[in-house]
Each structure stands twice: as C-alpha cells, then as structure tokens.
Automatic annotation (TrEMBL):
One of its GO terms (molecular function) is double-stranded RNA binding. NCBIfam families: L-threonylcarbamoyladenylate synthase. Gene3D superfamilies: DHBP synthase. Transmembrane segments: none annotated. InterPro entries: DHBP_synth_RibB-like_a/b_dom, Sua5-like_dom, SUA5_domain. Residues 12-200 form the YrdC-like domain. This is Threonylcarbamoyl-AMP synthase. Coiled coil: none annotated.
Length: 206
C-alpha cells in the first residue's frame, strides 16, 4: 500500500500503522533526507532475509546500516565513542551521513558478519526517526536503487510504489526524495575516512 505521511508533522496513527507492520515482520520503503530507503525491524531475521532476497545478496555479505533515533540510541550498538567522534556526531546529526563504527554485541549476529562493523544513520527527516522512536529499536536501511545508476523511481514515491508494491508491505509517500545518497564515513580506526562522497559535507563539521 501507498501511505501518505507528511514529514513536517507525521500523523501518529500512520506512524503506528508502519510500526505495527514492522513488528509483524513487514518490509517498508520510507523517505530519508537523501534517497528513499528499504527497511525492516533489525530484530526480525526473516524480514532481513526478505530484504537480502530483494537486493540479491546473502545476509552474511549484506552491508546494511541502521536508522537510529538519536545519539543515545547509537551507543546501544557501537563500541564506546571517543570525545572527537562524539563531538562530530553531535554537530553532523541528524544529517545526510552514514557513519561506520565497530559494532558491539547488541548488533544481531546476522548483520555483524565477519567484519564486526555497523553503519549508523540519523536522517534529518521526522518520518523514519518517529518510526524508530515508536518501534523502540532501529530499522535496517538499504537503498532501493542500483548503486551504479540512480533511477527516476528512486525519488518519486508513486513510481517506487509501482515498482515495489508486490515486494514490500508499505511504501510511505513522504514527498519527492533526493537523488544523492548519504556520505559514508569510516570511523573504525579513530580517524574519519570518507568512503563515499554523497550529500553530506563532512568538512563543515570537523
């Protein structure tokens, strides 16, 4: 189904509808501050496997990130941050970044694979953050477009719905999305290494 939610003031009933869907193992496509994402509850193994099937990847090879509500939420899943990392995150988030950290033991084993790292996002969009807040734990986020070719349906929720309505339970119409993905920053070594330059400009916060 295509569900209209306004990012400025997300309807609590609509948010609850999405949360109930996620709790029952459903898949949802939702807006962020960059491109639209495909997600599920990180605690639901079958839902994660469904997403892997859609993306054509094996769960242990998946490179998924989490959407968290705020900084305190991040600390539940990553090893302790140093002062420099915490200051940067406080300035840059919510924002169009994916920060990769060393994972702690709370990350589901299916997701931590052999690398023991996890990507974290706090998008500057009230819709996914409210969903996560009401759900009580993060949702997985993975892009719905081919990484090499940004397609038109990536930004238009109605076209996204046409393409994915048989594969997911809910497509949230939160307005047109961006065509530029998040900037991916590796923080696992203590430094900040940009792995993919996207919408976020890290230099503004360092």
């Amino acid at each position: 189904m295509l569900l209209k939610i306004y990012p400025e003031n997300p309807n609590p009933k609509a948010i609850q509808q999405v949360v109930d869907c996620l709790k029952s193992g459903g898949l949802v496509i939702y807006p962020t501050d960059t491109i639209y994402g495909l997600g599920c509850d990180i605690t639901n193994q079958k839902a994660i496997e469904k997403i892997c099937k859609i993306r054509g990847i094996k769960p242990d090879k998946a490179n998924f990130s989490f959407i968290c509500y705020d900084l305190s939420h991040i600390s539940d899943y990553v090893k302790p941050l140093d002062t420099t990392q915490f200051r940067l995150l406080k300035k840059a988030l919510p924002g169009p970044f994916t920060f990769i950290f060393n994972a702690n033991n709370n990350v589901p084993k299916l997701l931590s694979s052999n690398r023991k790292t996890v990507g974290i996002r706090i998008p500057d969009n009230n819709i996914p953050r409210q969903i996560v807040h009401e759900l009580g734990n993060p949702i997985i986020t993975t892009s719905i477009h081919d990484e090499d070719e940004i397609m038109e349906y990536s930004t238009d929720p109605e076209l996204i719905h046409e393409k994915f309505e048989d594969l997911v339970d809910i497509v949230i119409d939160g307005g047109y999305g961006d065509a530029i993905p998040s900037t991916v920053v590796d923080c696992t070594s203590g430094d900040f290494e940009i792995l993919r330059q996207g919408k976020g400009v890290l230099e503004e916060y360092v």
